[in-house]
Amino acid sequence: AQSVTQPDIHITVSEGASLELRCNYSYGATPYLFWYVQSPGQGLQLLLKYFSGDTLVQGIKGFEAEFKRSQSSFNLRKPSVHWSDAAEYFCAVGGQTSGNTPLVFGKGTRLSVIA
Amino acid sequence: NAGVTQTPKFQVLKTGQSMTLQCAQDMNHEYMSWYRQDPGMGLRLIHYSVGAGITDQGEVPNGYNVSRSTTEDFPLRLLSAAPSQTSVYFCASRPGLAKVGELFFGEGSRLTVL
Question: What is the average per-residue pLDDT within B47-52?
Answer without folding.
Answer: 91
